[in-house]
Amino acid sequence: MSNNALLQRVQQLRNLINYHNHRYYVLAQPEIADEEYDQLLRELQQLERENPELITSDSPTQRVGAPPAAGFRKVRHPAPMLSLANATSPEDLWAWKERYEKLLPPKTDVSWVVEPKIDGLTVVLHYQKGLFTLGATRGDGQVGEDITNNLRTIHSLPLRIPVASEGPPAPQQLVVRGEAYIAKAAFQRFQTEQAQQGNTYVNPRNTAAGALRNLDPQVTASRPLDVLVYQIVQNSNHLPDTQWQTLHLLQNLGFPTTLPYGRLFQNFEELVSFCVNWVEQKETLPFEADGLVIKINQLSLHKTLGFAGRDPRWAIAYKYPSATATTRLLDIVIEVGRTGVLTPRAVLAPVYLEGTTISSATLHNADYIAERDIRIGDIVTIRRAGEVIPQVLGPVPERRTGKEQKWQMPEQCPSCHEPVVRYPGEVAWYCENSACPAQLVRRIEFFVSRPAMNIEGFGARQARIFTEQGFIHEIADIYELARHREALLALSGYGPKKVANLLDAIEASKQQPAHRLLTGLGIRFVGSITAELLLTHFRSIDALAQARAETLAELDGVGPRIAESVQAWFSHPANQRTVARLHAHGLQMALPQPDTRPQILPLAGKNFVITGTLPSLSRQQATELIKKHGGKVSSAVSTKTDYLLAGEKAGSKLNKAQKLNIPILSQDDLQTLIAAADTQRG
Known about the structure:
Elements: H1 3-26, H2 34-50, E1 74-76, E2 86-87, H3 90-101, E3 112-118, E4 121-128, E5 131-137, E6 143-145, H4 148-151, E7 173-182, H5 184-196, H6 204-212, H7 217-221, E8 225-235, H8 243-253, E9 263-265, H9 268-277, E10 289-296, H10 299-305, E11 307-308, E12 311-312, E13 315-319, E14 324-336, E15 341-353, E16 356-362, H11 366-372, E17 379-383, E18 391-395, E19 420-421, E20 429-431, H12 437-447, H13 460-468, H14 485-489, H15 496-508, H16 514-520, H17 528-538, H18 541-546, H19 549-553, H20 559-571, H21 573-584, E21 607-611, H22 619-628, E22 632-634, E23 643-646, H23 652-659, E24 664-665, H24 667-681
Helix pairs in contact: 1-2, 12-13, 16-17
């Protein structure tokens, strides 16, 4: 390939990948299947590896994260990043209107834009000739921190504008303001995965803020961050006349914006009614929001009205009452997790909040307690804010009596009394004693749970009882519970049928695939996804146990931290004995060898897309049914789609399939198709 042809192909790939990133991450309207996207990205990565001189900062391959930084340099903003005054009632909104109207000529034409107040981290993004060159935090409003390399990892943030070829031309210089956040659904998935690895993340905002201010961009890249943009701070081209036009311009340039969630009002009374009632819609947003932002639409009036102190007169935030309460912190106790992490928990005087009586709450870690100077005996503020586990926000210092006691992490584990340790760069303290009783209960509980061995009738209560009775001293003892049948029958509530069902479920779990067993071993940082990835490569737990950390770290999705954890776990003699005992009990230690014999399956070679709600199959069940019979399932309709499986409330995918004359199947049609093909084969 000539140099000119090579350069053209690299640029073509970048344009295609950027276009499909925008369709997927911003518009949620993918046009190609994941496999096709991965092919494009792999080709670009290969060309850049072979020709490193062609790598540019806006290449899609550069989103993986730069080397760790020593610190963040300070950045002065081109204009102040101002905060907003708050309104908490309709009366406050009308009073705001009366205040600014006194500064305007009579009968000035005013409209208003209402946007959700995203609960995230403010970011300021700089573009030169369409290229993303600098990103900063808000800081004190005048000076922020340079987090450019971290922001590059966010897929919804365009590295070059305009994203679409038909978009408006990029200004020579453009600075925009937005909010980085983690969507609620993405945070729940991330939280579940991290919980399997012994990590705790309390809410999307704190997780997003921590990720963006992490000195290692590769850590940031592992967090499901997004961004929404809502303001032009500086523009070398002509500025739009209104905020509503600004949002449309930003959207046309390729930025994800608040436009889909915003409203334009010509009538202030309607605006007030909308704000009061909007709290009912708040939970339907894909991200956390703690209120609304109301802005005068006409940008020329912004200059006329100016500021009152640090608050613009032309905008106000409508905030809703926080779900908080105050109560006394009676004690701080330590809970030991299955990976040995020591987590402080607040014991509270019971208080009623959002329909629930709360008597305990999380305190996260020792640093959290120290930073907020939380003391035993304090009156503290607690919050639920939609979270399952309440959290202590901080003390109410003015209510102290002088009897409050400062707290510090104990030097010994409260369960086994072994010394506790803290690793450099980590906030958590650990008990490293693998025989620690507190860890054992939680390890057993995790091993039998649904993500791992899924032993029916065996849960947290059984894990505690069986360890307390001395039936279980380590994971492999689960498969010798039959030796304790008579002792089990003697337990309260354990009749012959219940014991028989439990032992049958334990025996049946031996057929669980090897990746579930690997998940259940509870190796730090190895959740279900990583376990499947490792076994797909090594095929057996024995082969994985022999792998060196350097080899493991080379796998996509693993990296040094996971690699060192896996090697350390398998090098421990006690863990080696556990694996050997599980092997002897007949558990699945390897993935089955792939069947290389030619098979004729009814849906072989057919590509399906699923949309809408099916009568009796979930999306996952339908996918498994199609794959079981040889078909493939893609996320987007294209010319390569053979069938669209459509249920109720089918959306844009149905319209596209009809335009492309792709056959539309119902659930019954799919099952008929499978049955007919099976009949022909017979």
